[in-house]
Amino acid sequence: MEHKTIGFALCGSFCTHSRAMAALEQIAARYEHVIPIVSEIVAATDTRFGAAHDLMHELERICDRRVITNVVDAEPIGPRKLLDLLVIAPCTGNTLSKMAAGITDSSVTMAAKAHQRNGRPVVVCMASNDGLAGSAPAIGQLLMRKNIFFVPFGQDDPVGKPTSLVADFTQLPQTIEAAFQGRQLQPLLL
Ligand SMILES: Cc1cc2nc3c(=O)[nH]c(=O)nc-3n(C[C@H](O)[C@H](O)[C@H](O)COP(=O)(O)O)c2cc1C
Fold first, then answer.
1. Which CATH class is domain 2-135+145-154?
2. Disulfide-capable partner of 71 in 48, 110, 132, 140 (CB 3.0 to 4.6 Å)?
């Protein structure tokens, strides 16, 4: 068990939540503290992929603490230096674009901004249908930012969804390890 505190934030790519939760189980087994965070839409939305209440319950069970669901509860991450590293998995095109534009109007973007002021690593595990379209500029900008690392990603369905990009969630633990060493896990493109 490593004596580190990881923030684990989920955005509204509902179809990848099961992959994120599998990765979270591994991370919780390895690091002493994991603080769960969800975007407001995740906290409030039931979809065909599951009910919000069940997801929150599962997060609290795995992490053994209350889930951060709003800007007010995410803000102390900065001044209190609560996290050694922040994971955003899944990270939507919406949250990617807000981070690139400096917009901080959700629990997850607030967590990212608060954490980044401490100069500590953020690991982005993206899932976006418009990664090679509307979100592409944001991905490019975040690739150039200090302390932001990406879980290796690729096209999940080049014919059916030609602009979709999804990270390989199974590489999240290795990406975190590399990020702690200040290194982007390679190859970045799958
Ligand atoms: C069923 C469902 C699946 C979605 N899947 C994705 C997805 O895989 N990637 C994505 O970027 N947005 C997806 N969205 C859209 C986001 O949920 C939406 O942009 C939302 O505003 C994201 O908010 P957040 O980034 O604060 O979590 C999905 C929405 C729904 C209802």
1. alpha beta
2. 110
Residues with CB under 6 A from ligand 1: 11-15, 39, 41-42, 47, 92-95, 106, 108, 127-129
Q: Look at the block and give the residue holding tokens 């939760």.
A: 21
Return the ligand 1 atom nearest residue 45 CA.
31
Contacts of 51 (CB under 8 A, 6+ apart): none
Q: Which of 2, 1, 4, 7 is nearest to 114 (CA)?
A: 7
Please identify, by atom number, the ligand 1 atom nearest to the C-alpha of residue 107: 26
Q: Domain extents for the chain?
A: 2-135+145-154
pLDDT band with cut points at 50, 70 and 90 for residue 1: confident
Record the pTM: 0.98
**What's the pLDDT band for 12 if we cut at 50, 70, 90?**
very high
d(CA 82, CA 76): 7
Q: How far is the CA of 183 from the centre of ligand 1 (A)?
A: 29
Distances (CA, A) of 134 to 13, 97, 168: 16, 9, 21
Q: What is the pLDDT of residue 158?
A: 97
